[in-house]
Design goal:
Blueprint lengths: L1 H8 L17 E7 L2 E8 L7 H15 L4 E8 L18 E8 L7 H14 L4 E5 L7 H4 L9 E4 L4 E4 L2 E3 L2 E5 L14 H14 L5 E7 L6 H9 L4 E6 L3 H15 L7 E11 L16 H8 L4 E7 L1 H9 L8 H21 L1
Parallel strand pairs: 2-3, 4-10, 4-11, 5-9, 5-10, 11-12, 12-13
Antiparallel strand pairs: 1-2, 6-7, 8-9
Helix pairs in contact: 3-10, 5-6
């Protein structure tokens, strides 16, 4: 019925434009309800001098075509309002292939140390790597890489037409952290919105360039920052760091369930068990399980989550973090553990893509 009406209305020509009112889009809406026909005509020009004439012609045409219906014609002026389209955030992340979140259910399990050593191991495997320190309340990557004194500069990027923040470059890695913008003694008493806005700026305005992997050092737990990150970036996977004891593993469960939630749906690429055991230098065959044995591994196996590997307590790991030279650079023993973990991580990430 609507097409039949439009066919007849094509015969009505606007005297000024010499176009059919249907062809020019003036017939905005036709609604047929029982014995009534509602038509809306939209005139681009305000107070169009031919509006009344065209309205009468439309009224008569439709009444002749549909004599059993009451015809109501409504006039509108100006362009139709188009629904507002959400503005896509301008971002410098288009050259990043894979984004990996390194998370932990609780603090104190060595997540930041693991992130730094993973980044350097991936670099040694031939990948281009960046690190984003998203631990807004306790940034530690500047110290891990010995770039605590770095002061970020801005550079206008003609491609996106906005000012990009230049990351620190150390050990062939690109590093960005909120720690570059504050004094070491500052107390970060930020509300959730302030922290989220700061993180959004670091994600989208940092000039990452072309990267194979961007590792995100997440804050511990499951909160606003995690959800913000998930909303801002398409994560390729998540690595969960834990220690062996049950109290730490209990928090791992919450982290895993957050990433597995249907509304989040981020693949858990694997679990790393840090501080798995301690071996004294003078007793290289002995292993002392200071924090329990295999709790994270057992949880991973029981829940069909990839287990990436164990990292023992080695003094060089602590010393490297303090001196700004992560242990994989100087200690072959540490390098072997991280190489095995990274090989599994890369395999799992590629499978889930």
């Amino acid at each position: 019925m609507e097409n039949k009406i439009k066919k007849r209305l094509e015969e009505i020509i606007h005297p000024e434009t010499k176009q059919s009112i249907v062809e020019s889009g003036m017939v905005e809406k036709i609604s047929i309800e029982q014995e009534k026909i509602h038509l809306t005509l939209r005139f681009k020009k305000a107070r169009d001098p031919f509006a009344a004439k065209i309205k009468r012609e439309v009224q008569q045409t439709v009444e002749e075509l549909m004599p059993d219906h009451a015809v109501i014609v409504t006039l509108r002026e100006g362009e139709a309002t188009k629904p507002a389209q959400p503005e896509k955030p301008r971002t410098m992340t288009s050259g990043v292939a894979h984004v990996i979140a390194v998370a932990s259910g609780k603090g104190g399990v060595g997540k930041s140390t693991v992130t730094a050593n993973l980044a350097l191991t991936l670099r040694d495997m031939g990948y281009r790597v960046g690190v984003l320190d998203a631990d807004i309340y306790g940034p530690s990557q500047p110290k891990m890489f010995g770039v605590e004194g770095y002061m970020p500069e801005a550079e206008h990027d003609p491609e996106t037409n906005f000012d990009a923040i230049l990351p620190a470059e150390a050990m062939e890695l690109k590093i960005m952290s909120i720690g570059f913008f504050i004094q070491p003694t500052d107390a970060l008493m930020w509300r959730g919105t302030m922290a989220s806005n700061a993180l959004r700026q670091l994600i989208h305005q940092t000039k990452w360039g072309t990267l194979d992997f961007l590792l995100i050092d997440m804050p511990p737990g499951t909160g606003d920052i995690h959800l913000q990150l998930i909303n801002e970036l398409k994560l390729s996977g998540a690595v969960i760091v834990s220690t062996p004891q049950q109290v730490a593993v209990a928090d791992v469960v919450r982290g895993v369930e957050m990433f597995r939630h249907p509304q989040v749906n981020v693949p858990v690429s694997g679990i790393v068990e840090n501080m798995a055991w301690f071996t004294p230098e003078e007793l290289p065959q002995n292993r002392y399980y200071l924090f329990g044995k295999g709790g994270a591994r057992t949880y991973a196996e029981q829940n069909e989550i990839p287990f990436l590997g164990e990292i023992p307590i080695i003094q060089s790991v602590m010393e490297g973090a303090e001196q700004g030279t992560p242990a994989v650079l100087n200690d072959p023993r540490v390098g072997e553990y991280y190489r095995s973990i990274c090989e599994k991580l890369v395999e799992n990430v590629m499978k889930s893509c």
